[in-house]
Amino acid sequence: MVSSTRRTTSSLSATTAAAIAAAAAALMVSVAFATAQYTPAAPGAAAAGAAAGATPAAPYTPATPGAAGAAPSVPAGPLDIAQLGAKGDGTSDSTAFVLQAWKNACNATGTQKIVIPPGNYLTGALNLKGPCTSSIILRLDGNLLGTGDLNAYKTNWIEVEHVDNFAINGHGIIDGQGPLVWTHNQCNKNYNCKILPNSLVIDFSTNVTVRGITLKNSKFFHLNIYESKNVVIDKVTITSPGDSPNTDGIHVGDSTNITISSTTIAAGDDCISIGPGTKMVRVNGVRCGPGHGISVGSLGRYKDEKDVEDITVTNCTIKGTTNGLRIKSYEDSKSQLRATKFLYDGITMDNVSYPIIIDQKYCPNNICSASGTSKVAVTDIVFKNIVGTSATPEAVTLNCANNLPCQGIQLHNVDLKYAGQGNTTLSVCKNVAGKSSNVAKELACV
Ligand SMILES: *[C@@H]1O[C@H](CO)[C@@H](O)[C@H](O)[C@H]1NC(C)=O
Ligand SMILES: *[C@@H]1O[C@H](CO)[C@@H](O)[C@H](O)[C@H]1NC(C)=O
Ligand SMILES: *[C@@H]1O[C@H](CO)[C@@H](O)[C@H](O)[C@H]1NC(C)=O
Ligand SMILES: *[C@@H]1O[C@H](CO)[C@@H](O)[C@H](O)[C@H]1NC(C)=O
Ligand SMILES: *[C@@H]1O[C@H](CO)[C@@H](O)[C@H](O)[C@H]1NC(C)=O
Predict the structure, then answer these.
(1) Range of the domain at 355
(2) Domain finish residue from 254, 280, 302
(3) Cα(84)–Cα(119) distance, rounded to whole angstroms?
(4) Do 310 and 224 share a structural domain?
(5) Which residues contact 151 (CB under 8 A, 6 or more apart)?
(6) Percentage of residues of the chain with pLDDT beyond 70
(7) Which ligand is closest in space to the CA of residue 259?
(8) Of residues 384, 390, 399, the one with CA closest to residue 445
(9) CB 292 within 8 A of CB 319
(10) How far apart (Å, rounded) are the C-alpha atoms in residues 163 and 160?
(11) How far apart are CA 85 and CA 80, in angstroms?
(12) Rounded CA gap, 249 and 214, in Å?
């Protein structure tokens, strides 16, 4: 039972890694394409603002960090998509109206607010590109629905790219309508599978807030943060069935200073996954489940991966997931990197299959050689105040490589009971050094 559960977990996670890589590759293509398509603001936009008497002459200049402080100009056209002609009837195509509102806001100055009013607005790909001369707030009072027509997307659904000082807020829903297309996901059968669109992607952006909204039934990942800085995800709800394919809640890669707080995530894959090149992540007050838990990794799959450093996960509840707190790296890693300075503090587990798991020998079928020479160093990882129940007896798994043992692993006040009957929890540990305090001896393997 145990090994079959773990195999299932491994193969799903392998597809996720492949998915991320493919998505990243696809992203490069889309960025190149986007750059070719990007047309700078027509001088008319600024002129229109000036003509309306809003601001003193505001000639078009590329966005600067100072944009946030600039006086607001009158945009060249409406920012409310209903005023632009969108119909919230759930079936009319609203794509062009959202893109027009974006263009109007992006080419203005100061803070500009785009409004999605109550209603259900169906769209295809929404490439919300910067740089913008304004700071934009996207107010979501209504719902955005991603069409089930896959031809309407190049890669992702809503893609915010090169946009600084941007916020999405409101109580509306970003509904990926995944059930219409999940059967097209072949990632459990084909390693080089076609990736379905991620719902909300934030790329190459600084100072971004996503607050209050719900992301539902994404076709692939719900929220993907890549090459971005100073991002806050607060009071967000992410919801999709536990058996929906690759519907990770939030994935973060190559990014710095990311806060995820007071957020509830039910997903078919990792609730939160943190990829290579990510530093300063603060996760607090997250409820996760169903799903595959809060993961760092997979690390070492590709060349030139950067360290993962300074991650804290505090005050979270994880319920009914396959893993709880997981760090995984490939046994035959292609890059040399470090996973270091992580603190997990104040986590309640409720019937989680593998509550604490470091797997430095991650090697799903057919994609690595299991050579046993890990190059991903796992050091200085603290698990503190981790309580609750485990769905399998194996509550603590620290499976490290003999050529590069895990160092500085600490367990303090870890109290995990078996949720089933006729057994007790235990730890399974290899090649690990560190210390523990206030942990029952069956779990205290360091
Ligand atoms: C991000 O916000 C900080 C603090 O408000 C500001 O100093 C900085 O210029 C902003 N960065 C960009 C790229 O706009
Ligand atoms: C991290 O991001 C938050 C929110 O944008 C910001 O207030 C804070 O100043 C940033 N910290 C650093 C060290 O950049
Ligand atoms: C713990 O998380 C809850 C949300 O789940 C939040 O309301 C509360 O403020 C958090 N407590 C601390 C001390 O951060
Ligand atoms: C715990 O989870 C397992 C599946 O992982 C399930 O079979 C079992 O009923 C759950 N137990 C409780 C007490 O919820
Ligand atoms: C308890 O669980 C361990 C680990 O899964 C297993 O090896 C052992 O046989 C179990 N003991 C009983 C009495 O079921």
Answers:
(1) 270-446
(2) 254
(3) 14
(4) no
(5) none
(6) 82
(7) 2
(8) 399
(9) no
(10) 7
(11) 9
(12) 11
| Substitution site in 2, 418, 423 for ligand 5 pocket (most atoms within 8 Å of beta carbon) | 423
Q: Are 176 and 157 in contact (CB under 8 A)?
A: yes
> What does the alpha-carbon distance between residue 11 and residue 153 come to, in Å, rounded to a whole number?
27
CA of 65 to the centre of ligand 1 (A): 6
Looking up tokens 């990007």 gives 38
Q: Is 133 in the pocket of ligand 1 (CB under 6 A)?
A: no
**Together in a domain, 198 and 318:** no
pLDDT at 43 over 80: no
Give tens-digit pLDDT for 125-142.
Answer: 999 999 999 999 999 999
| Residue 32 pLDDT | 26
Confidence at residue 362, expressed as pLDDT on a 0 to 100 scale = 85
Ligand 1, atom 7: nearest CA belongs to which residue?
65
- Report the separation in Å between the CA atom of 242 and the middle of ligand 4, taken as the mean of its atom positions: 14
190: pLDDT strictly greater than 50: yes
- The pLDDT score that the predictor gives to residue 2 is 25
Whether residue 325 lies inside any domain: the answer is: yes
Q: pTM to 2 decimals?
A: 0.87
User: In angstroms, rounded to a whole number, what is the distance separating the alpha carbons of residues 332 and 330?
Assistant: 5
* Backbone torsion region of residue 430, taken as left when φ is above 0, otherwise alpha when ψ lies between -120 and 50, otherwise beta: beta
